[in-house]
Write the structure tokens for this entry.
Amino acid sequence: MTRLDNRVKLKSLTIKNFMPYKGLSSIDFPMDDSRNTLIVFGDNMRGKTSLLNAIRWGFYGYAYGRHLRKIPLNLLPNSEAVKEGDWEMVAQIKFEAAGSQYDLRRVARPKKHVAVIQKPEDIEVELHLQKNGAAVAGNLIEEEINQFSPEQVSRFFLFDGELLQEYEELLIEGSDHGKRIKDEIEKVLGVPTLTNGREDIRNILKLAQKQQAVEASKTKELESIAERYQEQETKLESLKVDLSSLTMSLRKTHDDRVTLDDEIEKYETVFVKKAQLDSFRARQKEIDSDIKAKTTERKMLVGDIWKDFLAPRLSIKRDSLIGEQQELNSLANENNKIKLLIEQATLANESSACPTCGTTINEDKLNSNRARLIELKSKLNDFKFDEERSFDVAVLIKTINKVLENKVGGRLVDLDSSLSSDEFNLSKIENNIDNLEEELKSYSLEQLQRDRQKRDSLFRSETTLSNELEQTSSLIDKTEVEIRALSTQMQPKETSRKTRAGQTIELCQKIYAVFDSSVERFRSNLKESVELNASLAFKEMTTQEAYSGLKINENYGLTILDQSNHEVQLRSAGAEQIVALSLIAGLGQAGRASGPVIMDTPFGRLDTKHRKNILKYLPTSATQLVMFVHDGEIRGSEDLDVIASRIGAQYEIKEVTPSHSVIQKR
Amino acid sequence: MDDITKLGLSEKGDMKLKRLQEENHFLDMRDAFRVGIALAIAFKVSPQEDNTKKVGRYNISQIDEDKSIETAINLLCDTQGVPTYRWAERLAEWGVAKLSEESESGQINFAKLLEDVSSLAKEH
């Protein structure tokens, strides 16, 4: 079947009560080849990795926690649903592969007669698969899935960006963890098919050599060689027992150390949280004191607010009083003017001279002045000017002005709005304080100290065990060389004298050599293919034009090559991530049919340019690209422009409560 | 009808006034009393005659030291021949009840009251 025939595409994922997803949640994957990218946005701790785990659990029946440790089944169902007595957990994945339609459904529920679920064994899991509408027999389901989506390869298409750093271990020659990853990579690539064959031949060879030694011990001239052979064999067995026990101890020590690292990391988070708590408490104090000061000022202002209540009506009244006052003033002026004229006319009549220049006034003019005086006096008598009212109006205006001058409403409104924002912030801070106090309640700093000491001691043990393991391996190699030499010495030179065991040995040695060189050739071909594909991907994704490609090492670790094909020794965290993604791309292409790539938090350490390159490249390297990202990784349209035309759907994870999230289409 | 020398409220009104101070809405009951009168004037309230017994509390000078309130009542209210400070008591009864009602939500929303008062002033 060609790769195109075997293409895998996810259609939908429906989950029920899976980790933080209480009740039913579902995602429809984009099916259009030209818009094959799905992005799910979610803040940290909301359930992005849980979605990845839902797919993993649906296909393979397990979910990973930190450091690729499996999460016990009883811890997977949603805790709120469990509290409400609903233990049923479902992951249903609809997909198409090789032209067939599949419906995979994995259901977990408590075993009958189990009242309280305490351990994974209390839960039973059912797996159903329908292919083109017909049920696939239970014992064939795994095989069916592995045809197009082998479990061993799953880490290369269902991967957690936070684990990318694991691949850096591959660069450390001889590291146990690196060796374990290498073994896994080789499993994916099919190397064990050959290495297992080689091991089988080695076992047959060993049996034949033992038989030969027994036969040789019966021959006088070979007796001492056979004896030495037996000694070396016994030594080899014992070394192998040592090696196996050392390997186990090392793994256990490593796992214990990693567990403690996790615990310590949690504590380190505790320290960060403690610092946050202290800063929240300081801010709480600050806001509290602000609120107190503002409340006191507010109470003072409230005492004067009556003036602001009167102000609108008093202002209108004052305007009308000012109008009245103006009228009264003009009347007063008129009144004064008449009085002055009367005064002047009276004076002129009495002195018969002009009161201004002193010139004598003739009789005619005096007569006319007398008539004018009578007229003015009569006008003054008729004039109505209320002097008292004028005084009252002036007092009223003054009183009103006093009220209007001291308004406090504006400041009070500002204070109220500032107080309400302070109170909102305070309540947010108090919530944060409550949550942090609750979280920190169960941690003890003394325990952290003890854990740190224990971790350091385990780390030292790990180093010692690694050294012992290396020495034992080297002794085993030496002993095997010795055994092979003794075995050769025990063989007669002439073929006619060779025993059956001798003939088997000869044959096995030849077959072993064939397997040995095949393994090496196969590995070398695979490495070349992975190196080539990874280099192509790397060149698409890197922003550094001076890099010419990647070089693969014994462990499948990749180093960057510069333009003169020299290895680049120092590389940034961002470059590490691009290299890891390239390895994933290389391995993904070497190890399975073309299918979707689902990535959780893939851009953690990358700059904008790298993000853009990756976003451009990844949709072209898979049938579907599904990314679970947080806002810090992808800044909305700014970053998504580059793949806007490839986005088939966008979802968002929303928090209902800390243990209940929902998925919504964007 | 003679005017009064002490200002007070009905027993019910007095309890409300006390509560306004106890619940820290006002530093002093006199402030609440004064704000009550002003609020009633601003809301153009024409209070009905109230014959219930008054709990006399304050000398007029404690409430209206510079006679601003008296001036405002005389200028803005039709007291229907009722002496100014008797009218002031009736206004305070209404205003304190209104403040007490407003305080039930936890905080008196003065911004809203000021807005209402400003629009009412524009209505003839």
